[in-house]
Amino acid sequence: MLTNQYFVKRAYTLFFLLFLRCVMGLGQQVCGRVTDIQGKPLQAATINIHWQDDKSHVGSVSSDSSGLFIFKDLAIDRFYRVRVSLIGFETWSKDSIGIGANSTVELDVLMVPKSSNLEEVSVTAERPYIEKRSDRTVITPDVMLTGIGGTAFEALEKSPGVQLDRSGNIRLSGKAGVSVYVDDRPAYLTGEELKGYLRSIPLAQIDRIELMTNPPSNYDAAGNGGIIVLHTKRYRSRGVHGGASLAYQQGRYGRTINSADIAINREKWAMAASSSLSTTNTYTDLDILREFGDGQVVMSPIFSQNTWIRRKGISIGGRLGTDYFLDESNTFGINLSLQSSPIVLESYVESWFMTSSEILDSILQANNREDRTFSNLGTNFNYRYKKPGSEQKLTVDLDYLVYNGNNEQYFDNTTYLSSGEPIALESQFGKVPNDIRIYSVKADLIHPVGNALRVSTGLKSSRTMTDNDADFYRILEEKLIVDLEKTNHFRFRESIHAAYVNMDGKYGNWNYQAGLRFEGTISGGHQLGNGSQPDSSFNRRNMDFFPTLYLQYRPSGESKHAVSMNYGRRVDRPHYAWLNPFVTPFDKYTYYIGTPYLKPSYIQQAELAYNFQPLLDLTLAYGKVSDLMSETIRIQDGVYYSQQDNLGLSTTMSATLNLSYVPLKGLTLNCHAAIHSINTKSEIFGQNMDTRGTYRLVRPTITYKLSERWSFQVDGEYQGSQKFAQFTMKERIRANTAINFKMNSICSFNLAITDLLHSDINAGDIGYLGGAYATFSTVRDTRFVNLSLRYRFTKGTKNDRNYQGGGAQSEQQRTG
């Protein structure tokens, strides 16, 4: 019988055979990419190549819409000179370009505008808000004036295709299970921890956001909804670069978001550092109504609850990265990141228990407090090799990440009769740790094969370990008595070993990319017993292959039209906290509970897209998920239990449209519109569930540039009602406005008002509760005024070196 070890060894053997094969064969050409110093591709630049010795003209080409150009079949053993010119830019040139037998020279051409110093260029250069590429959508968050001064989380809320579900979790193109990366490294967080982490990253430090519903095989296969990558700001030119951002937000309460960064690039080394300091001061007003039918064992048929939550805290973060350029080919780098976010949640809960005729029976009042601490430390060591004059690159990354968290809960519950007489007092105390340690090592190789094919291969191994010992107590006469029903000690281990091969190239008017990723997962959990609960454990092994395919047709290199399609398979693995079988209280009548037998879900999806630059892109998508993981709600003895469960089969059909139109000088209209049809079939709590819902989303933006200094923007959002599994969400609407003033080339002010009508309310119904009915409504501090100041400076000179601040990033940011 063939064992799992056999298949693992076989996969790695095939990988190394492909690795050895792809290192053979090079072209005989000069190629490159023309961009401005912000990295935006420049089309229609004229590139001339001459023999250096007698200055004879060899040939001329123009850069295409991606800024690319190529000279093929060049004579060997000669030296060449290349000159690049474009109206409005200084001429770029490079001498002593040697061409040997079977060699390729790659040029990185950065064009500097005429009559403009670098300080002015760094501020006034404009990038499109949405850029559609073959395997991803790139968002420039700075274009959204209403988001300036905010955080990464707020920027995602405004990004096309991104939505938040009823719990505030991120969805991409209507699908849950989204993995979030920062600088191409996964955050390994979900739920409240992920939201808190994203809120700790100032938007001023984000350069771009990449949305990938079907990522290529060099990314981890985790995430049915795809991945979102946040790229922090990087600098390519030598010299000193930096800036600061200060923002104050005034809603019901006031809060601040501040950051500063600096980068120093020298001939042999480069260093970048950033820091952030933010405060949290906000609220949530939550209303829940539960009605119980016949057969429900509860104290009253109607239970109405209002919870007022006040959040106050501070977040401090910092990043430090340094690269040492040993020579033209070899780079060593170290990156460190640190985040600390202590927060206090104080909540007042009032619950009314009524008869079926709505006569008050009793009242429960609770004063609760949660002291949450969360910190993360990330360490990365990397090595990067780039062969001069070739696309051949090798990177090696070693990562160690630590996430430490603790939640101390204090619950005081008092029950009163309708007359106001107290009849019961109950106090609880709990300590819920959240500790994760992750080790990761990976290597990636890019190598050209011939003139029209590029092969990428890589290996990755990661190990995740958690050891969480949660203690709960009942407080009687100021004494702590262990609550064995809730106290638990849960250990979890997971190892993932992966190998991939990816090929991309061009054939005629076709661009193609195909990849295959293998991932072997070994995981196990151990729930230690106590005097009330026995030991339990589980172990799992999964060996999976994940193919990806991308095709794009463009009639010519200068054509604005393109048609593309892609296909991929991905997996969504359960978070370790979802596997812990013990319950965690939110309040006296609301609990979260884990499911140790939760299985991973898999998705197969395909997309067909049409793009007309820069006006529009239209995408049609179909996805099919098996063993869908989703939040489920059940009510037992009046208590509300929330847990993740495998629902069964879910299919999603989507149509997405992005428009960008400039009808008048200075006036830009952007609009994102989407329709998602979701059908979920399952058996839940003994009931057959077959739900189908159509979800509509529209996000228009109008930007008017009054002058070089003044800009004005209005944007909004409409989310239609949505039905998914147990939940029916009501429609939501939001309107925002902002005005921006550039004092000079390095300093600007921004004033924004979000959710003008305070209409962004998360409300809906919950069904399939076995005879019970529940509704909820959540009002947050979404209406506020945001005043921000941004200052940036750049003092440097042109540098052909492409500084990335980390070995793995240049390969991962590659597009087809």
TrEMBL record:
Domain Outer membrane protein beta-barrel: 391-791
Matches recorded under Pfam families: CarboxypepD_reg, OMP_b-brl_3
Organism superkingdom: Bacteria
Endpoints of the signal sequence: none
InterPro entries, A to Z: CarboxyPept-like_regulatory, OMP_b-brl_3, Plug_dom_sf
Transmembrane feature ranges: none
Name of the protein in its database record: Outer membrane protein beta-barrel domain-containing protein
